[in-house]
Amino acid sequence: MAFGTQDNTDEVMNEINMTPLVDVMLVLLIIFIITVPVMKHSVNIDLPLASNEVQINKPETLRLSVDAQGRYFLNETPVADEALAPQLKAAAAKNPQPDLHIRGDKAVRYERVAQAMAVAQQAGLRKIGFITEPQN
């Protein structure tokens, strides 16, 4: 018992039915036509003017050098071991806090550089960096 007409050929339909796609596109087009003008309406506000220049306060850089004999130099000025901590505490109290760049001679004992780092940390300096020479 077959309902309707049925031919005996079982051919596959290889065409895309475009009617549903066109219907969906028309519905989307109508939605966008309605919503775009609604989105453009807004409350008129007279906004204040402000300058947009970036103000960057570049912190100064302290250069702590340790020569081959283990002597300390703060910004190329010789500093005694006892005077290093008070000078670094004074620098740490500045706003913005300066960066500390440590340059250690490769012949100096690591202990002297580690002591300088410990003093800087105890003084409250937060930005400590090492300066090295690039290899050729």
Condensed summary:
Helix content is 35%, strand content 15%. It is an alpha/beta fold and 136 residues long.
Low-confidence stretches: none
**Residues in helix, %:** 25-40%
Q: Would you list the SSEs in sequence order as H and E?
A: HEEEHEHE
Structural class: alpha/beta
- Strand order, sheet with most strands: 3-2-1-4-5
CATH class designation of the domain at 67-130:
Alpha Beta
Mean pLDDT: 84
Task: Characterize the structure shown.
The structure is a single chain. By secondary structure, the chain is an alpha/beta fold. The protein has a domain at 67-130: Nucleotidyltransferase, domain 5, CATH 3.30.420.270. It has three helices and five strands. It has helices at residues 19-40, 81-92, 110-123; strands at residues 61-66, 72-74, 77-79, 99-104, 128-130. Strands 3-2-1-4-5 form a five-stranded mixed sheet. β2 and β3 (77-79) form a beta hairpin. α2 packs parallel to α3. The longest helix is centred in the N-terminal third of the chain and has 22 residues, at 19-40. The radius of gyration is 37 Å and the shape is elongated.
